[in-house]
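Researcher: Go.
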Amino acid sequence: MTATAVLAVGVVLVVAAFAMVGFVDRALSAQAGDAAALRAEQVAGRGVVHGSTIVVADPEEEFVQVLEGSDVVASSANVAGLGPIAAPAPEDTVRLTVPNLAGPFIAASAEGQGPARAQLVVVGVNIDDVAEGRRVVTIALLVGVPLVLLAIGFVTWRTVARTLRPVEEIREEVERISSRELGRRVPVPQRDDEIGRLATTMNRMLERLERSQERRRRFVADAAHELRSPVASIRQQAEVAVEHPETMTLDELAHGVLAEDDRLQRLVEDLLLLARMDERAPEPEQVDLDDVVLAEAERLRGTTSIALDTTGVSPGRVRGDRASLERVVRNLLDNAARHARERAAIGVVELDGHVVLAVEDDGPGIDPGDRERALERFVRLDGARDRRTGGTGLGLSIVRDVTTAYGGSVELGDSSLGGLLVRIELPSAN
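Model: Structure:
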């Protein structure tokens, strides 16, 4: 940034320096030319006698010639005997050198009237001062421009360094943050600019990482706790069968182990699904949600005695992973069947670019204060339900994670049947 600033300003200053030298030269030359023209008018106004010598204030600084045609009829002593030196038109000037006189001159003319013919009075003025002025300005610029560039470079370097110092502080703090210290935050400068917003954004990112890590740790701890229960139950039954074979038949042991193994398998499948959703949702495809709903409803009718109403199912196509969406519908229907007294209903409808899936039952429902917590993992709201009859506490959390992974939302409310309403919105594939 410093090099760019110095280069840009340097180009401007060099161009300006050349322009200034040219301006000084033209201004001083114009001033000398005006003085020569004024002097010529004065001489012409007084009239000039042939062969006379015109007096000048400084022979080194000025000369005068009076011309009639191509003849010199009068002159100053310092150019006596010389032919016509110059014959500029009135109001014009010309630069020239004069034999026997040092330095360049600028000459101007004025018309006068002689005894018999018209005369042209030519006056030359020494312009050594013009050259000296140009030289002084050039030296000043040769010294001043580099000094100005050095000053600009120094100021830019210091300013940029001070501006970017918070970035270095942020980098050093990020370097010190490890997976065990996600509670640390980068310093936020006390100014509302790009660096301040960068620090704020990084802190928000660290907060998300910290929440994700905490959620993962809690998930691992809860999963370990849940897995311990069926494993312990299987071990307990096996130990009882070994120590007291007379209290348990082989058939009873097999049924008990198979039941716990089934619980263990369902839990592992739920955990694997949640782990995949946390890592990365499967690539979406177009899925007819109404076909999934009707297939799962038919499955449920073969395993439960409650009345399941599917008259509210209409065509609805979404984008998502079919297996994951089947799991969502299955969890909702199993949850409704588990808590319904006599009736449950499921419907699919497309509204305003979204496909709405609604599942409701006539069960006890969920208190409004507990509905948000019911969507969390390993949450069982009914204290009377144990792990054997109440599931793993992952059903609604799977519904929420799959739905949000594909741009949808989940809402719990009151059912028109008197129990719980679970309402899911997913973007329509149409």
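Model: The two ends are 50 Å apart (CA to CA).
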